[in-house]
Design goal:
The complex is a heterotrimer of chains A (331), B (95) and C (252). By secondary structure, chain A is mainly α. Chain A contains 12 helices and 2 strands. In chain A, 64% of the residues lie in helices and 1% in strands. The N and C termini of chain A lie far apart (53 Å). In chain A, 46% of the residues are buried. Chain C has one domain: Up-down Bundle (Ferritin), CATH 1.20.1260. Classes of the chains: A mainly alpha (331), B alpha+beta (95), C mainly alpha (252). At the A-B interface, α4, α7 and α12 of A face β2 of B.
Chain lengths: 331, 95, 252
């Protein structure tokens, strides 16, 4: 998902110094979790819980921020003024969601500067999906429908996550995002009723976004390294594969409504289970994109790096002014 | 010039007249006025508020979770502070 | 030109101003100096494009030929757009874009104030909505101008240069042509000479607080109101109109 990089190996886990955590403390913590108590930032928590949350929440935030770019690519070319303002409002929401999430992570004692630094240096991960290019207007519809659709499936259970600040941020995010998926679907409904070129544009976008959307849920449960612990801590509530299945079951009928053909020869409805069975995901592609070799990884990061560097004098000026004002007030 | 990040502010919003301000989240800002603007542009995009307070996060004084028991448990056995503690005889109204 | 024709042209100019500025502003989405300012910029761009939509719709109704907001935005050519030159200037750095916003909004807020009292059907209502938005923008951008002007040596020098560069585009705002004059006389529209006095007073006050120098009298660029634009403008338009031009008649 937006934090699928979590499922990769934690390179820093071994390097952290040993912190005295008694069996009693750990047991008492787990008891609170099992009793569905929310953990707040200043409460005692195992170091691994804190570290997992910082990684997960910051990756989630980075995904929101990088996620502005593929859609931002069509902002100046949106085909109508109505679509333009809707898209702008949506992209702005993503900036807001990144902000809420950074703030939630900051309660754990990590600064936004540190997190942004990790993103810009390439150390931190973000969702693989945003490393694919948006080539036509239909991609904007496909992103809203598929990518936001997948995100919502992941984010709704996160509203019940055991860490209070994260859960509260997700409640706000989910509330605001409720229009995101619909606006994407609405774009595609309009295309599906349009001319042949528009229909072809839609199918092409769907062909390119379908598989990367399925990859958003992360590696299959058998390969997911952090899932069991995250489930026990109630940071994660539903497994990758379960969420992916839910997404496919919900999405295939919508694709049919749009007159789209799912680009998967193995896709079929299992009448007994009521679930769709689908083909094998190209996990090599997934790993490549996560590793930084997707079509747009370098471009996405370069844009953020440039914005950050270009803004340095502005941020410093505002601080200098604030210091002068404070000095004047004190004088 | 220091290259520290802008300080963090906590944002409190009154959603409509008659309600108290509630914590909405945080923003970074270089100064108080900017904090107010940033809170406005971040947290009231969907008509969520009619009044905003911002306060530097560093100025918030919070109780210590380690002292939760000492702080809050003593109130628990003062059940006579609650109206439900008292039994009202049948036939008595307006009490 | 009769009064009705002048009014349509006038409303279209207002709409063009709002749209072209909004279009410039969205070019820098995801490239702001800080996340919070990113949200502010998007809010302001939403306000401007929203105003453009209302104004185009209003112009379409006045014209009565069934032209929609999108027809005006996407199917007119460069020479038909009559926005101010200031608003089509490329974004440059944060200080350049900020000065552009500040100079225009200092003017626009007084223009809108005048328009809230005009007698043109529909326009006063749109102005009453827009002025609330623009007052906030102006407050925000004035504060930022003061921060940059009175910030570091570097920011002071940069934003002074931005102000000096943009100044040549401010004269055009106050030169009343036939359209302005007819709307002033027939619909009680704003008096640009009076607006100029207020603009100069407000701009001077903020510039002084920002410890910046007001640029001196100089040759002023003009042509926007007459559809003679900067060379940048054609590219802005080509990008903005590409979908409607590539797929004529399609619905999006």
């Amino acid at each position: 998902m937006y934090t699928q990089g979590l499922d990769q190996k934690d390179k820093h886990a071994a390097s952290g110094q040993a912190i005295a955590e008694s069996a009693e403390q750990l047991a008492a913590f787990q008891e609170r979790i099992d009793a569905e108590e929310k953990i707040e930032a200043k409460d005692w928590m195992p170091e691994a819980y804190r570290r997992t949350l910082i990684r997960q929440i910051s990756q989630h935030a980075h995904s929101e921020i990088i996620g502005m770019q593929p859609e931002g690519n069509w902002l100046t070319r949106a085909p109508s003024l109505k679509r333009k303002v809707i898209l702008l409002a949506k992209i702005q929401d993503e900036a807001g969601h990144g902000l809420y999430l950074y703030a939630a992570a900051e309660t754990l004692g990590v600064s936004r500067d540190q997190m942004v630094g990790d993103l810009l240096s390439g150390k931190a991960k973000y969702s693989s999906i945003f490393n694919y290019p948006t080539l036509t207007w239909a991609d904007i519809g496909a992103i809203g429908w598929l990518v936001d659709g997948a995100a919502i499936m992941n984010q709704i259970p996160l509203c019940r996550c055991s860490f209070g600040p994260y859960a509260r941020a997700m409640v706000r995010v989910c509330k605001e995002e409720s229009f995101h998926q619909r606006q994407g679907f609405d774009i595609l409904v309009t295309l599906s009723r349009g001319n042949d070129a528009q229909k072809a544009m839609m199918q092409d976008a769907f062909d390119r976004w379908w598989w990367p959307s399925l990859m958003m849920f992360g590696p299959s449960d058998t390969d997911s390294k952090h899932s069991a612990q995250s489930m026990a801590w109630k940071i994660k509530r539903i497994s990758n594969d379960e969420l992916r299945q839910k997404f496919v079951d919900a999405t295939v009928p919508q694709a049919e409504f749009l007159g789209l053909k799912v680009p998967d020869e193995d896709l079929r409805l299992n009448a007994k289970t009521g679930h769709y069975e689908f083909g094998e995901i190209d996990w090599q592609e997934f790993l490549d994109v996560i590793a930084g070799n997707g079509p747009c990884n370098k471009q996405r990061l370069a844009k953020r790096q440039k914005a950050h560097a270009d803004g340095a004098w502005v941020r410093e000026a505002a601080q200098a002014y604030a210091s002068k004002q404070a000095a004047r007030a004190a004088a | 010039m220091s290259k520290q990040e802008w300080p963090l502010y906590e944002v409190f919003i009154r959603s409509r007249a008659g309600l108290s301000h509630r914590h909405a989240g945080s923003v970074h800002a270089a100064d108080d006025q900017m904090a107010l603007d940033n809170a406005r542009d971040t947290y009231t995009r969907r008509s969520e508020g009619i009044s905003i307070w911002v306060v530097p996060s560093a100025r918030i004084v919070a109780s210590d979770p380690a002292e939760t028991a000492a702080f809050f448990d003593p109130a628990e056995d003062k059940i006579y502070r609650h109206p439900t503690f008292y039994e009202v005889p049948d036939g008595v109204d307006n009490l | 030109m009769n009064a009705e024709q002048a009014l349509i042209a006038y409303v279209l100019r207002l709409a063009d101003n709002a749209l072209i500025l909004g279009q410039r502003m969205i070019e820098v989405v995801a490239a702001g100096p800080e996340l919070e300012e990113e949200l502010a910029n998007a809010n302001f761009a939403l306000d401007f494009i929203g105003q453009a939509r209302m104004l185009y719709t209003c112009a379409g109704e006045l014209e009565g030929q069934g032209r929609s907001e999108d027809d005006f935005a996407f199917m007119r050519d460069e020479r038909e757009f009559q926005n101010l030159l200031l608003l089509e200037q490329p974004n440059g750095h944060f200080g350049d874009a900020l000065v552009r916003q500040f100079l225009f909004e200092s003017f626009y807020v007084h223009l809108l104030d005048g328009l809230t009292r005009c007698s043109a059907p529909g326009l006063a209502e749109i102005a009453a909505r827009a002025i609330k938005e623009v007052k906030y923008h102006l407050r925000h951008h004035s504060q930022w101008l003061i921060r940059l002007g009175d910030g570091t040596e570097l920011s002071h020098a940069r934003v002074q240069a931005s102000l000096d560069d943009a100044w040549q585009y401010t004269g055009e705002m106050f030169v009343a042509d036939a359209v302005d004059t007819v709307v002033h006389e027939s619909f009680a529209g704003p008096d640009l000479e009076a607006v100029a006095v207020l603009w100069r007073r407000d701009v001077a006050a903020v510039v002084e607080q920002a410890t910046l120098a007001l640029p001196g009298d100089q040759a002023m660029a003009s042509g926007g109101k007459d559809g003679r634009h900067s060379e940048h403008f054609g590219f802005l338009l080509a990008e903005m109109q590409t979908m409607q031009r590539s797929f004529p008649g399609a619905t999006w």
